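Lab meeting minutes (informal)
Scribe: AK
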Amino acid sequence: MQELAHLTAAEAARRIAAGELRSTELVAALIAQISAREPEVQAFAHFDPDQAMEGAKAADLTREKGEPVGALHGVPVALKDIIDTATMPTENGTPLHAGRRPVADAAVVARLREAGAVILGKTVTAELAVLHPGKTRNPANPAHTPGGSSSGSAAAVAAHMAPAALGTQTNGSVIRPAAFCGAHALKPTFGLISRWGVLEEAPSLDTIGVFARSVEDLALLTDCLAGFDPRDPDMRPAPRAPMRPIAMSEPPIPPLFAFIKTPVWEKASAATVDAFAELAETLGAQCREVELPAAFNHVYEMQRVVMLSELAVSYGRLYDAGSSQMSAVLRGLIEEGRRYAAGDYIRARRAQEALWPVLAEVFENFDAILTPAAPGPAPAGLDATGDPSFCTLWTYFGAPALNLPLFAVDGLPMGAQLVGARGEDARLMRTARWLERFAETGS
């Protein structure tokens, strides 16, 4: 049972497709793992073992009949509880949406079902996917935050309660909890995956992300999820080659990394400074430090203007109707967003494209940016979700970012973040596989 619960999504899919494993066996193992870990970790907002098992039985029956199967056939996937599901509640982490039952699946849920995945359950989110934490605890140490806002998805994967899960990122809500909990995660290029049917927070920044146990898993799920959807206004029709073959291939030459400390480097813990200094030294000529121009110092303020201005619009009706049922943190952010002038917002939006060419030039000379995923390991305490500032730049510019759980400090995971050029998600994953192997073997 425990061996099955530790399978990667890709390995589970291979074994199910080959007839070596039944989906019901895998789901039974995960149910046992959830029974053992969930009382402490509390990753799920909704989990019905009977419903999960029915989905697995249906997947097994489809295969037994010889019907076509998808790339994730029989593989359980958990969903952040801001992603609409027609067969499960979606309550968005707020009492204002208690008992909410969507009438249709979100686009990503429909794509998962088309690929044959079993929807395992809904994972805990911070309140309306912002900052006020939910009930989830860090699987590595329950006295520490799991991060947020995709806390339940990161914790469920790290605690082997789900082989894969979906989350969302508007600032640091995928990469940070993945780093804190010790999961692989990808926040893809902005506009790669449809957000139709997902809670809208700040539409100029909101991005669907993936948690899993390997880079191959990330590529597998992203291939299943990506694709043009006219219902998402930030998507554009364009041909796209499958990512998994590229991600699993060998780089033609050893990749080059641009080590960027970013303007918030003073927030880095001593453990982070030491870990990245050692990694950069070990990489040798494959890693060079790059300093961003002073204009990037203002990105954090501009990102806040964009995020909070849009958040204030997205949640304005909820605030007007039920602010007393919101946390003080969320109320304050909405009120701040309402105070920004239109000119502030327009300037902050224009800067997203005005500054991007500087980063594009970095990617002409380097395969990926190497930078911390968070200031350090997960902080102690459960009343906050940690500092997202090491993710802010990359989300603001819509670049793909990936967490690799390369380090640990006092039993707590600590992540290395890789950032790629827009649209180069597959290449970023290929580079991440190279770095992960290098970190393990030194070659």
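Next up, CB showed the second protein from the same session:
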Amino acid sequence: MFTHLLKKGVCRRGERGQTLWTAALLLPALIAATGLAMDIGGYASERRTLQNAADAIALAAAQGLPDQDEVEDIAEAWALKNNVDPDSMTVTVSGGTVSPAVTVVIDEIHEFAFMPIVSIDERDVSARAVAGKFTAGASAGVVPWTVTQDTVDAASSGQIVTVKFDAGSEIPAPGNFGSVQVDGSGASEYEDAARYGSSKNICAQGTDRCDPTTCPGSFPATCAENSPVCDGDGCPAKTGNMPGPSRDAIDFRMLNTTSACDTFEETFTAIPETPPATQQKYALNSACNPWGAGACPPAPSSAACSRRVFLIPIIDEFLNGSSGMVTILGFALVYLEGYDSGKCTGNNCEVKVRFVRADVTTGAFAREYDPDAFLQFVKLVE
């Protein structure tokens, strides 16, 4: 029995010796496999980093569209911010003034640490992004106070204008005080839309005029309007002064705006332009962007957010009474200043806002670029 155990112990020692030899023989292969996996992972990581950089550069550069020189200057500055060598980047502007877009392509060389053992020292790594500049064509969250195209044409960016009149002023037309129906005809639908913006998409004229075969991005054949009272780019005027619901909606927006965005100067920063533009252009503080960092929770939340920044419809004209439809020509970006003279009592309740010319990513449905529009935005299209 002792002899049997001794032989068994010798056998086990022999097995352990064979295992060690096998492990020693396999170790280089295991190290090589690990190194190759690290190289492949590093290559994939660099591609992701380059793609993120290309996206950021394209979005920033699109702010300068359709000006080629401005686009290139912005792209170079943002390349440096993203640790990209401008010499490795190609920037191309296309689409003219109808559907301007910028294409950013980054080509770099990725060097491997372990792949040379299989005769692969380096590989090209690249990224591509395309961003376009558009005018807002349709959006939810539209507030039912309005301005006519004539008012927009005569106004300057940053100017205070009236968007809802009262019985003591010269009203736009008999029975109309500057409001439009977006979610319904009742007082409660009007107040909710004034507080939170429309719950449905409101469309502007020409939203579907961009040919999907020539325009960047995706453009459906018809407007995405789904309002219960509007029809395409037509919405009925909201008749009546509505001082109570207007006051309550204004108070709600003023009192529930975050303190970082409760003045125009905190919310918007003027952008110097050379030569000076005919309309002052502004940058929206990201914390005050209601479609971004300053977004508000869904209604009926009263959480503080950037409620003084919103979109209003630009219309063709006001009709007498409630007959017919007004045409939504576009949207204006505005900042709520409050009541006229700081009061809203009795039948006297005018709503004052500031027009703002700005490039803002609103999440709105895009239509083709209009260089004269107050509200323009950029988005990635590829």
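CB comment: Residues 191 and 245 are 5 Å apart (CA to CA).
No objections, moving on.
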